[in-house]
């Protein structure tokens, strides 16, 4: 993978499964960019993103920063769904 790129593994939670579950973004792309793209592709009004099944990032956070701090094996794992899922 090129420098300045972030590999994002998208995991559905009570949401439609994407054809491509692993996408690559520029490191300076924000969570907002991913959120907007997913809402458009999935045609959902409400969408919650959870990083590493632990927390919901703010929309202004950069994907590169999240990957550096919370990624595993070079990939940032994000669960998405229409509502927060606990338990």
Automatic annotation (TrEMBL):
<dbReference type="GO" id="GO:0061723">
    <property type="term" value="P:glycophagy"/>
</dbReference>
<dbReference type="GO" id="GO:0000045">
    <property type="term" value="P:autophagosome assembly"/>
</dbReference>
<dbReference type="GO" id="GO:0000422">
    <property type="term" value="P:autophagy of mitochondrion"/>
</dbReference>
<comment type="subunit">
    <text>Forms a conjugate with ATG5.</text>
</comment>
<dbReference type="InterPro" id="IPR029071">
    <property type="entry name" value="Ubiquitin-like_domsf"/>
</dbReference>
<dbReference type="GO" id="GO:0019776">
    <property type="term" value="F:Atg8-family ligase activity"/>
</dbReference>
<keyword id="KW-1017">Isopeptide bond</keyword>
<dbReference type="GO" id="GO:0000421">
    <property type="term" value="C:autophagosome membrane"/>
</dbReference>
<dbReference type="GO" id="GO:0097352">
    <property type="term" value="P:autophagosome maturation"/>
</dbReference>
<dbReference type="GO" id="GO:0034274">
    <property type="term" value="C:Atg12-Atg5-Atg16 complex"/>
</dbReference>
<dbReference type="InterPro" id="IPR007242">
    <property type="entry name" value="Atg12"/>
</dbReference>
<dbReference type="Pfam" id="PF04110">
    <property type="entry name" value="APG12"/>
</dbReference>
<keyword id="KW-0833">Ubl conjugation pathway</keyword>
<protein>
    <recommendedName>
        <fullName>Ubiquitin-like protein ATG12</fullName>
    </recommendedName>
</protein>
<keyword id="KW-0072">Autophagy</keyword>
<dbReference type="GO" id="GO:0034727">
    <property type="term" value="P:piecemeal microautophagy of the nucleus"/>
</dbReference>
<dbReference type="GO" id="GO:0034045">
    <property type="term" value="C:phagophore assembly site membrane"/>
</dbReference>
<comment type="similarity">
    <text>Belongs to the ATG12 family.</text>
</comment>
